[in-house]
Hints:
Aldolase_TIM, alpha/beta, TIM Barrel, Alpha-Beta Plaits, two-stranded antiparallel sheet, BssD/PflA/YjjW, 10 helices, 2 domains, iron-sulfur, metal-binding
Amino acid sequence: MIFNIQRYSTHDGPGIRTVVFLKGCSLGCRWCQNPESRASAAELLYDARLCLADCRLCQEAAPQLIEHQQHGLLIHHERIQPGDIDVLRDCCPTQALTVCGNRATADEIMATVLRDKPFYDRSGGGLTLSGGEPFMNPELAHALLKASRQQEIHTAVETCLHVPWRYIEPALPYTDLFLADLKHVDSVAFKTWTDGSAKRVLANLKRIAESGKALTVRVPLIPGFNADPASIRAITDFAADELHVSDIHFLPYHTLGMNKYLLLNQPYLAPDKPLNDPALLDFAVDYAHRKGLTATLRG
């Protein structure tokens, strides 16, 4: 299950890249900017601003799921069964109701990836798997990375690494670069804000570092979670002293994904304002430099 293929990307690894977004994630990060990526199944997104009051096409397609009310649709998410959502694809003329998630084979995805191979060759780009968590779909991730290697295409994976190691290990020979999140080293804070296990993530990070694969650590800086000097020092120390990486990227928190929670009828539990602390960002970069790392701020 994938939810997007983005061509001509320049922010997800070196050069010009095609980014394949796979659905499914084992974390529940409060600040997630792609909440539509969490579930492994297709989902309905509803934007009431685009809904036509006198249109009944979606209700006619799936009357057991949708009711029209005075101020928009009432969607019975609890009634959705496998296959129900498929009847709603392309039924809405204004795209007020959209389906997020499409099933695709590795061959179908690679047909799109290969269209831009000349751009990869000229720019040093390639394929990036993102999500969600790509390794929640280990067989598809492995197939795409292996097929890309066979076509001499550079491969990268954007990952939170919150999966069993056996999901990752088969893809190691075919992955050139890991862009891996290091959200926190404190188990309690990590559990509270992500519903996950920091121990699992840290262990996987160490294994990837020991494998000799190129590894860039990415740190989302979230107010109330890790956007403070003590947390930044601990995270950077782990990256430098335990992983021995060269590059660390700091990603200041923003709220650009907040509206997606409304589309999914889900609560937004993260801060409602972006991180605006230049002094803290300067500290993060300076401390990383003092630890011998190349630090980059990414918007």
